[in-house]
């Protein structure tokens, strides 16, 4: 469970940055602009962020936050996370939920990134290995990219697959699975339980509270990092 959470944190910032600067194995090299190439480009950009040892922790987080907007379709993720409840929302509620969900997801994973974690990533880079295995298309606009990541001191490689679709002419991630467990399905189950038991406004209040807690935590970590 711990290794799944760690991998998920970095998968959500565009690539498996826990294996940054690693040997990348690609079966059937893709053509430029296809889903696998898009993910590889994202990985290269993440590698550059983590290899910049002069970058402060807070700036590193903001850089990754900006990159995630380019590679993840947070609007589609938000709709899917609400499931059938989405159709019951007013336009105003939808406009409220999408940015709140986006910020919550970003903060939930970026908050795991402490300075010690950044150093761990650099150490993992020496021995870890990411394999881009294959990509399959559901139709002209949907695809899945299959990857594995082998971490140091871990017996079994993690299977992390990216579900992608074309949005505004760009391949973007709308879900990912870690050892066959869907990130969005996990949130959907949680959100559905809250809405059914306590209502939509309770979910909004919970997300807002959690977001504020995460931001306070990240601000404190950034101050601690800057003081060392």
How many angstroms does the end-to-end distance come to? Answer: 31 Å
- Using the 3D structure, state the CATH architecture: Roll
- Strand order within the widest beta sheet: 1-2-3-4-5-6
Helix content: 40-55%
- Order of helices and strands, N to C? HEHHHHHEEEEEHH
Radius of gyration: 18 Å
The count of DSSP E runs of length 2 or more, i.e. the number of strands, is 6
Query: How many DSSP helices?
Result: 8
| Average pLDDT number | 80
Q: Per DSSP, what share of the residues sits in E-state strands of 2 or more residues?
A: 15-25%
Q: Could you give a short account of the major beta sheet? A: 6 strands, mixed
CATH class: Alpha Beta
CATH homologous superfamily? Tgt2/MlaC
Poorly predicted runs are: 8-26
What is the total number of structural domains? 1
Kindly identify the CATH topology: Nuclear Transport Factor 2, Chain: A
* Shape annotation: globular
Summing up helix and strand content along with how strands pair, one would put the structural category as alpha+beta
Structure description:
It is a single chain. This protein is an alpha+beta fold and 228 residues long. The chain has a single domain, classed as Nuclear Transport Factor 2, Chain: A. It contains 8 helices and 6 strands; from the N terminus they run αβαααααβββββαα. It has helices spanning 2-11, 35-51, 57-71, 74-82, 91-110, 115-124, 183-198, 200-227; strands at residues 23-26, 129-139, 142-150, 158-167, 170-178, 181-182. The protein has a 6-stranded mixed β-sheet with strand order 1-2-3-4-5-6. A hairpin with a 2-residue loop joins strand 2 (129-139) and strand 3. The protein starts with a helix and ends with a helix. 32% of the residues are buried. The model is unreliable at 8-26 (pLDDT under 50).
């Amino acid at each position: 469970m711990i290794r799944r959470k760690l991998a998920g944190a970095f998968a959500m910032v565009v690539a498996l940055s826990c294996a940054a600067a690693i040997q990348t194995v690609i079966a059937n090299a893709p053509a430029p602009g296809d889903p696998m190439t898009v993910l590889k480009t994202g990985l290269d950009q993440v590698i550059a962020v983590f290899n910049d040892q002069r970058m402060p922790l807070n700036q590193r987080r903001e850089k990754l936050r900006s990159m995630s907007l380019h590679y993840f379709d947070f609007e589609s993720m938000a709709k899917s996370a609400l499931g059938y409840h989405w159709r019951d929302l007013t336009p105003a509620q939808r406009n409220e939920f999408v940015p709140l969900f986006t910020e919550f997801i970003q903060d939930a994973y970026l908050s795991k990134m402490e300075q010690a974690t950044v150093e761990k990533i650099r150490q993992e880079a020496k021995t870890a290995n990411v394999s881009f295995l294959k990509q399959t298309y559901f139709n002209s606009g949907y695809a899945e990219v299959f990857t594995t990541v082998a971490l140091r001191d871990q017996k079994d490689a993690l299977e992390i697959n990216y579900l992608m679709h074309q949005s505004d002419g760009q391949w973007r991630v709308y879900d990912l699975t870690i050892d066959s467990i869907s990130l969005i399905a996990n949130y959907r189950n949680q959100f559905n339980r809250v809405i059914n038991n306590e209502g939509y406004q309770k979910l909004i209040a919970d997300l807002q509270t959690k977001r504020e807690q995460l931001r306070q935590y990240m601000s404190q970590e950034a101050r601690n990092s800057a003081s060392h």
